Write the structure tokens for this entry.
Amino acid sequence: MLGSRLGKLTIAAGVVGVGLLMAAVLFRDRRADLGPEPSRIVQDNMVVLPAGTYDDKDEVWTSRPKGGKRSWGIRGSGYAEAGRMWFDGFPGETGRYKVELGVVLEADGDPEYRVSSGGTVLDEGRYRYACEVLLCGATPEECPFKPRYIDLGVHRIETGERIEVWGRSTYPCGPEHGSYSRWFELRFTKATGESDGEESRLQPELEPLTARL
């Protein structure tokens, strides 16, 4: 009798072990589908700072890849939390740049964001919904996660300035369905216009910038 019970326990443990191994493999494969970890890009006319290359962050931030991007977002706690990620010093030349925040839109929330440079807020606001309106019960097939760039305007950025991204998660559909301020990169493009602080707007289409460079 005892041997029979031990045998069943061994089989059950084996099944659980196989299940955990398969889950780990699937998780690893999903990460592999995203390609290699992006690195910072510093060129004469452009600087790209991927989220994963941050210098430091508040503990609420974690890796949350979605929409084919290695995005970072606020952890899923079931209630709204806020925090910062930052880069100790802007690596590009001092100048005027069009600044864009690469984000991942979700169906079930419009989280807040704020981006600053050298202690000055460049832009703040809320993400849009992935499908234009709040959809609490939508599946990823019905309303996919959507990478987009938010135009933060044209600003003077000094070499060495601390660059900071702040976000706050939101749970309008209840504690099981959060939206986590996911973002994947900051992009700075040398500007040629004369005005600073242009109105922020969401770019309608995503340019595969990281893939091209």
About this structure: The first strand starts at residue 41 and ends at 42. Residues 55 and 87 are 5 Å apart (CA to CA). Confidence is low (pLDDT under 50) at residues 8-30, 197-213.
